[in-house]
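In this section we walk through a basic example: taking a raw amino acid sequence and producing a predicted 3D structure, encoded as discrete structure tokens. The instruction is simple. Fold the sequence below.
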Amino acid sequence: MQVSRTIVLVSIQCWLGIGFVLSCMASLTLFGHEPAPIIVKGIAQMIESRELHYGSLTVSLLNNGENGFAHFVIRKLGHFFVYSFLTIFLFQLVKASDSFFRTLLVLLMVSIFAVTDEFVQAFLPNRTPLITDIFVDLTGCLHSILLMKLWYICRLRKALA
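The resulting token sequence is shown next.
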């Protein structure tokens, strides 16, 4: 069953729009709004007094408080999953006879999106472009590529059995 290219293109645009809205919401938390208290408490209990070195930043409960640390974790998970889903959409959009070429092309496109996203953040107030965010984005991409390849292998084995 083929997925319509138009539906995939609209899905990519919607997903990038959702990413933009979430990015703006992340900026709002810097202006006094806080993440949900349940999420904050859950993350704080998981990581009591550990420090996380992220690029030039050192993030911990002691330095940033529960809300600041939870906000950091939520933003990084957002980066991971936005680019993970973007990869899935792009795999549906890009059609190539060679699986390796298709994977490489999708990886290149996602890399361009990630670098562009960080470049734009350099011009936004209260946002910081970080190379480590690009690595988080590409990790989300590789996560989806791996899952799709495993799914394809399982489907192929089932068809051959």
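Looking at the output, two observations stand out. The first helix runs from residue 5 to 29. The two ends are 21 Å apart (CA to CA). In the next section we compare this with other chains.
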